[in-house]
Model the fold of this input.
Amino acid sequence: MLRILYLSLVILLSPSALAAANPWQTLIPELERGQKPAPINHSIQLEERAPQIKSGGFVHALDGQAMRMPGFIVPLESDGNKITEFFLVPFFGACLHLPPPPPNQIIHVKHPQGIDMIEPWEVVWLSGEMQVKATDIEGLASAGYAMTLSKAPEKYAP
Done:
């Protein structure tokens, strides 16, 4: 009985199981998962945002895969009441008030039809085809992935 409990815990706490529980982990190569993130320097003023740490690899097997990702939208371009280009990031304030996450934790989306404006604190689900594609938005951050949306964002529900 103890052996079964132990094996169950090992499976549940394995990197693959943790990645399944958190879709953002699937964007990080398995050997890099679980590494401590770089510390945030809290003494930097908001207008002196800390630079993005650009280390970390990409999961090339995701290229061309249909994915569904939760996250926060950081608008980059808009057309009237529609956001036409944005980053999807894993936590609130990323790229704006905090140092941007590494490129393997930022998804760049261009959607010419635009999506409805979304409050920065709202969590959404995005669905579409993932690409391993570097994009640099000067002065803001670099993204390592891009997504072509297959439908409009959905409000987050676990």
